[in-house]
What we know:
Layout: E1 2-6, H1 11-23, E2 28-33, E3 53-57, H2 63-71, E4 75-78, H3 85-90, H4 92-113, E5 116-122, H5 146-165, E6 168-174, E7 177-178, H6 187-196, E8 201-204, E9 210-212, E10 214-215, H7 216-229, E11 235-238, E12 243-245, H8 246-257, E13 264-267, H9 282-288, H10 296-309, H11 311-320, H12 322-338
Parallel strand pairs: 1-2, 1-4, 2-3, 4-5, 5-6, 6-11, 7-10, 8-13
Antiparallel strand pairs: 9-12
The structure holds thymidine-5'-diphosphate.
Thymidine-5'-diphosphate binds next to helix 6 and strand 8.
Amino acid sequence: MKLLVTGGAGFIGSTYVRQVLDNHPEDEIVNLDALTYAGNPANVRGLEGDPRHRLVRGDIADAELVDELVQSVDAVVNFAAETHVDRSLLDPGSFLRANVQGVYVLLDAVRRHGKRLLQVSTDEVYGDITPGKHSRETDPVETRSPYSAAKAGGELFCKSFFVSFGTDVLITRGSNTIGPRQYPEKMIPLFITNALRDQPLPVYGDGMQIRDWLYSEDHAAAIDLVLRKGRSGEIYNVGAGNEYPNIEVVRTLLAHLGKPADLIAYVPDRPGHDRRYAMNTDKIRDELGWEPTRTFGMTLHETIDWYVGNQEWWAAIRDGSSDFNDYYQKQYGWRLEAAGQSAG
Ligand code: TYD
């Protein structure tokens, strides 16, 4: 297969690109990435010499560029997105552009050229899930943050193109994903790198929010399976069933690093913070035979160990980019001060 992978220099995208090149020797990848703050050429380092991989710097909302690239491939896998809830509260408009307008441009090209599009989405479109319940693909979307609203908007456009024009689209809804090369703004990589520098870990609210943790390699494998074997027009939930309250994850993380629990700082909550995400994943398991390859312990430990072993990767982001520090001060400066701590 010849694939256009968008956002393939990001976290899950680069994991997917590497996995496809390893598992499918015949496949070729055009990797379209805007290389904004989270897309990072270092994430695809080592692939420069591989003739099956070509990195193109560009925006998925650039209709002319997208049209040209889509013509030359069999299918598109869209990882390109604004992904961080806290940033969506600071700048909702950029989420609308990337996650709705960008998806529309991809869809339009895929429709014109008769190709397949897999849209990578998120369990956050289901909204806040009451204890005991597990979201199914047929449940309504109940988005609450600008991030999840924009992801749902992108999904709904995909669905509408399938129904209205017969465009070949598939959607995956993944749970919270961790692993190597995740930009250190998300909870796990932020907390690992803060802990390694003996800086406070800003836990929002009471820390009892629940997320279902998934390893990036398992998430990428699920997406690839859906791309090759999934039924057109369908949505597939992807999750490993690792439901834990944040504070428990944070304590395990500190213990694995041998760092003290008094690094934990309870800070003012994220507005509209969803208490729980949890999905039923029978569909992808029963229909396509997907299952995670790692326990929660392995998922967390392998992620932590990667950051311990790759300090130069994240130090370049934390020390070398004004983006990270501007964002960190804006997001955490006043929160840590309210908790009697300093943002450094
Ligand atoms: P995050 O990694 O931002 O993913 P999402 O919001 O998409 O689930 O956050 C995971 C959980 O961790 C979520 O409940 C919010 C919480 N969190 C904190 O408590 N402190 C933080 O600094 C961050 C970034 C997240």
